[in-house]
Specification:
single chain; about 60 residues; mainly alpha; about 0% strand
Length: about 60
């Protein structure tokens, strides 16, 4: 699972908890975080298990 998919899954779970506990401001902020993550999805999809892309290049050398 890439970082993007994992992050979206965690944010969706957090939003469900915020909705269940009637915390609309928190739910709104989580939606904003999901939007921000979607904006960086290509960078996040390049990463695996939280590793930077540059780490892979250094390992190859």
């Amino acid at each position: 699972m890439d970082d993007f998919a994992q992050m979206i899954k965690l944010l969706e779970s957090a939003k469900q908890l915020a909705d269940m506990n009637q915390l609309p401001m928190l739910a709104y902020l989580i939606e904003m975080a999901k939007g921000e993550a979607r904006g960086h999805r290509f960078t996040l999809r390049e990463r695996r298990r939280g590793q930077e892309k540059t780490e892979k290049v250094q390992a190859a050398e």
